[in-house]
């Protein structure tokens, strides 16, 4: 495991140098070079492991109370490292374009890049250590550096608030994790993951408690419903590449944690799988439902992250059900699809956030209702964003479909040995279909409002703005990944085959490699259909432009006879989602501020509607009500030291009684 | 034999869209006491449009001229996956039913985008409605196909409707699924009670209002693919209720093809009758119709799982 030390040191070197050398350009350059070297080096070690090479192990001596930190690079860690490191590097490259003004200006940009390196360091730690203590440290490094990256524009109070909100949420997640580790440590008197295996693989109340705590913690980290509220705030506040990295890469650590502990659990209780499936299905549905109501592109993408971790989580839930029912086919398809979806989501979500960043740099706004017509000025960003959104709506020929297809394939398993489980599984498939339909609506709305039509607000068209190649190249690279996995699904299957094999091995004698469950011919058929679709499309357009008359004349859009339409007469985002939001009105909460024109000489009226997060709204309201309640009681309590002492004594007596009775 | 089936499948896919529209219009005119246009009138309409020079809106971008052909391409591909007769489809593999639903969904997006591309509020309204209803229909479609898969224990489109024994129970399930799919057909192809293709008020249209700014060959592509989409759903329904799986061919295959054709024509007749006899629903009531179809499928699914011993 020397490679890890080398990688770690190079990242540290990069961050230190970018802090101390003079000149922003040099800082950035040195940092990027160090990141590239370290990533390249680590990848040469992880890629062989990912494709079936031998696991790498090592250990480090550490002082009391940790003593010894074991390191292991198994296919699962290798999978996460193999996509996390280069994608963070791509994010850093994008940052060069996104922060171009800061780099030219007097501000010290080195800190930003140093923090990006710190994120890389946290990946190396979290994905390889086999020690709960070191795991928590790595977890904390990631959380703190992500927080500092989020508040890069800290002069804005809203951004500080969002950062603070994120800081608290991520530490709530840490709290649950620490609680779980306390249980595990209490049972085994060890920080080594390998020692937990025995305790975690025997059913019992404490195991269930530890499982729930762990899943809550990881759910908070990955923004599962109902712990997602911090995410849209943080994403809309952070610089675009930071949102991209948080959503696509950093918070995947939560899903890694889930898989890691499922591996230790071995054969979960049946309820565990169903619990995961239900929570994830709820995340997927609520996440996508909120995407259709958002005005802010980055908030929209944030909710879509909740949707996508939900979809991956549905895969994991299905896999766990398979583990407890001894159905290897469910294990293979559930975990295979779920793990692949992690990669796919990282690819398209980073692309979309980068696109949102470019739009922001171009127009100085990310409010859907003020944009429009950008397809004519952002010649490269528009098609990239379109393909990214189509991938996120799981459209065939793009990567999102492949992983969802695997999960569907698992949910549709109709073998009678599954018994009554088929009913909820098929209903979950129906829900996934609804999620797909909603996300199609959502991406149509987002792309249509941002790029199509004509600009809605003339203040946001900057004629001097240009697309920046530092921002375009990372997007193009991500698109290559999206299209490759989409057109050649077996490629995705090979990537997740070894990590899934770890989980398949838990089924014991029934274990077979992933490709036994997903025949290659099947994936070739997906390629074939994509080729047929594209072929028919090419032939049709070719025939049309060769043989039929082409457009000679343009005219104003048909406005029912009205020939002087203006830009404000286009359809708005909230109108677009209105039919759907009326169907699900009980799940959404709208705040409405209006001052309608009144009287014979009315002044200007206005109407604002905001879709607020119901969960956040209820939490804040609940806290407020609780505060009022406590305050009301406290009014009757005399503020004297005698009273306080008396209450303290009473509490002590109650505790002693409880202890004695037990 | 499979060559004959292939030719039959392609022929139905290509020609039936024209006649389906003709049959529906003929039934409506008979009901209204008129003689009505020729059964293949839409052929003339389409070829006339193909000869015209299109006019695009000033607001549109490069996306606009390509979208209709992409829609048509997805519809054709979906039509190759969907079976006409039980037991045969041009493209068939395990899990193709998921791909079928998603390919159709893929075809809707460019159409909605090109509606938004014109910057018209009317077209945006149509796109919004289309997106809403199709999203709500998605679970109905997948669950009905999944239920049939459960019944026949398979994951391929062509087999899941080739159902072996024809007991009363099987028949009841198939009819229920056919009902749900018929609701999908009505709404997806914008017929009454979901949408009125004959309406003249932009505010109340769904599909027609999305294509207000399409003209010439582009309009022809959109209209042909809309008719073809209806045909594809009619094909699936016909295959679901068709009692004769093609098997090894011979006389039974011919019988099967014949009965599928009869069923498709019958479905067109049913659409025409509904259009003549009922008023369209309010937009708000449509989700309830979709919910009814969904519940029908859920009941069928529960019955299937219970019957196979899943639920004691």
Please, could you describe this protein's structure?
The complex is a heterodimer of chains A (662) and B (312). With 662 residues, chain A is mainly α. Helices cover 70% and strands 4% of the residues of chain A. Chain A has helices at 2-20, 24-50, 75-98, 100-104, 110-128, 132-150, 157-188, 193-200, 205-221, 230-237, 240-250, 252-265, 270-291, 297-325, 328-363, 381-392, 399-411, 422-451, 469-487, 489-504, 514-517, 520-547, 573-583, 614-634, 641-661, and strands at residues 56-61, 68-73, 553-555, 589-595, 606-612. In chain A, the strands form 2 sheets. In chain A, strands 1-2 form a two-stranded antiparallel ribbon. In chain A, strand 1 (56-61) and strand 2 form a beta hairpin. Chain A is globular and about 90 Å long. Chain A starts with a helix and ends with a helix. The model of chain A has no long low-confidence stretch (mean pLDDT 88). By secondary structure, chain B is an all-alpha fold. Helix content of chain B is 70%, strand content 1%. Chain B has 11 helices and 1 strand, in the order H-H-E-H-H-H-H-H-H-H-H-H. Chain B has helices at residues 2-32, 41-51, 63-81, 96-117, 121-152, 157-160, 168-188, 207-210, 216-241, 251-277, 286-307, and one strand spanning 55-57. At the A-B interface, helix 17, helix 18, helix 22, strand 3 and helix 23 of A face strand 1, helix 3, helix 4, helix 5 and helix 9 of B.
């Amino acid at each position: 495991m020397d490679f890890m030390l080398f990688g770690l040191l190079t990242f540290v070197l990069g961050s230190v140098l970018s802090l101390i050398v003079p000149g922003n350009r040099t800082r950035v350059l040195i940092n990027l070079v160090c990141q590239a070297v370290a990533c390249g080096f680590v990848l040469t070690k992880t890629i062989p492991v990912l494709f079936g090479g031998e696991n790498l192990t090592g250990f480090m001596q550490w002082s009391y109370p940790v003593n010894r930190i074991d390191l292991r690079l198994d296919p699962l860690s290798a999978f996460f490292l193999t996509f996390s490191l280069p994608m963070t590097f791509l994010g850093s490259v994008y940052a060069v374009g996104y922060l171009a003004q800061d780099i030219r200006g007097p501000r010290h940009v080195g800190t930003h890049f140093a923090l990006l390196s710190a994120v890389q360091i946290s990946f190396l730690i979290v994905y390889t250590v086999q020690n709960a203590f070191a795991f928590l440290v790595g977890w904390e490094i990631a959380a703190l550096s992500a927080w500092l990256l989020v508040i890069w524009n800290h002069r804005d109070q809203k951004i500080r608030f969002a950062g603070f909100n994120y800081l608290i949420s991520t530490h709530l997640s840490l709290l649950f994790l620490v609680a779980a580790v306390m249980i595990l440590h209490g049972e085994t008197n060890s920080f080594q993951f390998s020692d937990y295996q025995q305790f975690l693989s025997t059913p019992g109340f404490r195991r269930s408690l530890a499982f729930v705590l762990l899943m809550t913690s990881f759910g908070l980290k990955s923004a599962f419903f109902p712990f997602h509220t911090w995410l849209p705030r943080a994403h809309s506040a952070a610089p675009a590449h930071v949102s991209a990295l948080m959503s696509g890469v950093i918070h995947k650590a939560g899903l890694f944690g889930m898989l890691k502990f499922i591996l230790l659990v071995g054969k979960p209780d049946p309820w565990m799988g169903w619990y995961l499936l239900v929570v994830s299905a709820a995340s997927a549905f609520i996440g996508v439902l909120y995407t259709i109501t958002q005005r802010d592109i980055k908030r929209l993408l944030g909710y879509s992250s909740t949707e996508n971790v939900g979809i991956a989580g549905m895969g994991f839930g299905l896999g766990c059900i398979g583990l407890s029912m001894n159905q290897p086919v469910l294990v293979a398809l559930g975990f295979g699809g779920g793990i692949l979806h992690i990669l796919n989501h990282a690819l398209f979500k980073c692309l979309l956030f980068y696109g949102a960043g470019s739009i922001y740099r171009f127009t100085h706004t990310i409010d859907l209702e003020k944009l429009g017509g950008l397809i004519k000025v952002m010649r490269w960003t528009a098609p990239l964003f379109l393909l990214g959104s189509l991938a996120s709506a799981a459209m065939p020929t793009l990567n999102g479909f492949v992983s969802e297809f695997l999960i569907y394939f698992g949910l549709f398993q109709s073998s009678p040995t599954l018994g009554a489980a088929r009913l909820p599984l098929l209903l979950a498939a129906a829900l996934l279909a609804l999620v797909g339909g909603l996300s199609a609506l959502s991406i149509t709305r987002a792309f249509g409002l941002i790029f199509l039509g004509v600009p809605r607000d003339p203040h946001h068209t900057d004629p001097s703005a240009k697309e920046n190649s530092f921002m375009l190249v990372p997007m193009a690279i991500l698109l290559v990944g999206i299209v490759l996995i989409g057109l050649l699904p077996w490629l995705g299957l090979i990537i997740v085959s070894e990590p899934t094999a770890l989980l398949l091995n838990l089924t014991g004698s029934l274990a077979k490699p992933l490709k036994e469950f997903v025949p290659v011919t099947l994936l070739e058929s997906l390629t074939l259909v994509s080729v047929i679709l594209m072929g028919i499309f090419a032939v049709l357009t070719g025939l049309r432009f060769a043989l039929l008359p082409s457009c000679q004349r343009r005219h104003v859009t048909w406005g029912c006879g009205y020939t002087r339409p203006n830009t404000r007469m286009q359809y708005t985002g909230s109108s677009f989602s209105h039919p759907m939001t009326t169907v699900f009105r009980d799940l959404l909460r709208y705040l409405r501020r209006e001052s309608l024109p009144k009287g014979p000489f009315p002044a200007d009226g206005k109407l604002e509607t905001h879709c607020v997060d119901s969960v956040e709204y209820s939490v804040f309201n609940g806290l407020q009500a609780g505060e009022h309640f406590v305050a009301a009681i406290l009014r009757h309590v005399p503020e004297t030291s005698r009273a306080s002492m008396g209450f303290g004594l009473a509490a002590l007596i109650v505790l002693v009684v409880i202890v004695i009775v037990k | 034999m499979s060559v004959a089936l292939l030719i039959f499948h392609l022929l139905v896919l290509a020609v039936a869209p024209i006649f389906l529209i003709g049959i529906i219009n003929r039934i409506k005119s008979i009901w209204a006491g008129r003689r009505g246009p020729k059964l293949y009138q839409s052929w003339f309409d389409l070829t006339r449009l193909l000869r015209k020079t299109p006019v695009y809106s000033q607001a549109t971008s490069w996306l606009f001229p390509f979208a209709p052909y992409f829609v048509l391409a997805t519809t054709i591909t979906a039509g190759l996956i969907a079976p006409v007769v039980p037991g045969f489809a041009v493209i068939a593999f395990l899990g193709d039913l998921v791909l079928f639903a998603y390919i159709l969904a893929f075809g809707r997006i460019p159409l909605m985008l090109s509606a938004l591309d014109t910057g018209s509020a009317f077209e945006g309204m149509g796109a919004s409605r289309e997106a809403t209803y199709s999203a709500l229909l998605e679970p109905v479609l997948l669950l009905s196909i999944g239920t049939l898969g459960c019944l026949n224990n398979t994951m391929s489109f062509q087999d899941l409707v080739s159902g072996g024994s024809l007991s009363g129970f099987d028949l009841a399930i198939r009819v229920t699924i056919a009902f749900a799919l018929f609701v999908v057909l009505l709404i997806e192809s914008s017929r009454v009670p979901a949408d009125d293709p004959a309406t003249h008020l932009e505010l109340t249209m769904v599909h027609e209002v999305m294509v207000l700014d399409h003209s010439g060959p582009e309009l022809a592509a959109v209209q042909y693919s809309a008719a073809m989409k209806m045909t594809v759903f009619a094909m699936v329904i016909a295959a679901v209720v068709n009692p004769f799986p093609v098997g090894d061919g011979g006389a039974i295959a011919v019988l099967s093809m014949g009965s599928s054709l009869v069923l498709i024509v019958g479905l067109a007749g049913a659409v025409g009758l509904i259009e003549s006899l009922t008023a369209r629903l309010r937009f708000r009531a449509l989700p309830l119709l979709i919910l009814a179809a969904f519940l029908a499928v859920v009941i069928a699914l529960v019955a299937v799982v219970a019957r196979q011993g899943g639920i004691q």
